[in-house]
Amino acid sequence: MQQGTHRRLRLGMVGGGQGAFIGAVHRIAARLDDRFELVAGALSSDPQRAQASAAEAGIARSYADWREMALAETARDDGIDAVAIVTPNYLHAPVATAFLEAGIHVVCDKPLAVSLAEGEALAKLAREKNRLFALTHTYSGYPLVRHARELINEGELGEIRVVQVEYAQDWLAEPIETAGTNKQAGWRTDPSLAGPAGCLGDIGTHAYQLAAFVTGMMPHALSAEVHTFVAGRRIDDHVQAMLRYPNGARGMLWASQVASGAENALRLRVYGTKAGLAFDQEHPNELWFTPLGGSAERLTRGRVTGAVAAHATRVPPGHPEGYLEAFAQLYKDAALQIEALDAGRALPAESLLLTTVDDGVAGLRFIDAVLASSAADGQWRAIIND
Ligand code: SOE
């Protein structure tokens, strides 16, 4: 770890107050490699809750409003370098816009925004302002996911033929949002807060991004169906899609939040002309590689060689690393990029696997195509990637 040579970057947070889940994950992840200190926050739209949440998290400067925070932090000599946006989806774009306009780097939770138009505007603004816009597609922070990408990139699988990705959870199998006590379920199933995509936006976009990240390929067409199993729910809780790739490969993606018994079962299998590989998020310290006609090889974190996996790992082989470290990897890469952008240097090569605003735009294109296909009873739709 390269400590000591870096100034600790000052981070602010919008959202993530008491009762939230992902805010606490971002706080741990940002601090894990000692590259950020959390100094400011507008943690809740309720001023009292914002204050209490900031005190609990040890955040010195608490704001009742994120607009006020963007202005006040820009005016300070010791204002924040970056902001983490961990609000419900409908606020991602307005909050990110305010901080980018103020010249502050952004780390934002997925999905990027609630519409493609909003997402494209964010991508444009981030480029104009020359600020970092990192999108936290956590699972691409795993060392073995990055290693899988390397293997494919180096041709170890041959020509890719089949991509199978799935993300199954069961926590929305019952209408838990109706009790009004589960904040997570509440906003994720409310289209005015989550946007038009439920399960599709919440975890379908993770599956889509993981497949694209590892294979280096984007599908150009899909046929899809979204479905709502739970009676009365106002948003999808299940999605399934068939994918076609420009090289002729075929793919399938399904994501469900009503798959009884499933915890956080994000799984990817990729088959090429020479070999196949399999990754299971619930066992992130191993990756299975099987050559055509050969026996399965279990590759393990800390034992696979190469700079890419080494950059994303922290402890020796056999000591499990997991979700928090994968999340921290995104913050580590973000810190490297913020330093480079602020110094007018090229982005460091080892940081380039960080998921960006463009990955977010790709996710929104996927959402649009899925919803259009589903509304047309599964008709094939083009996905325009540029
Ligand atoms: C809930 O479905 C959730 O917390 C997602 O919102 C996250 O993005 C995913 O990482 C885990 O599950």
Automatic annotation (TrEMBL):
It comes from the Bacteria. GO terms for molecular function: nucleotide binding. Pfam families: GFO_IDH_MocA (PF01408), GFO_IDH_MocA_C3 (PF22725). Residues 10-135 form the Gfo/Idh/MocA-like oxidoreductase N-terminal domain. SUPFAM superfamilies: Glyceraldehyde-3-phosphate dehydrogenase-like, C-terminal domain (SSF55347), NAD(P)-binding Rossmann-fold domains (SSF51735). Residues 145-277 form the GFO/IDH/MocA-like oxidoreductase domain. This is Oxidoreductase.
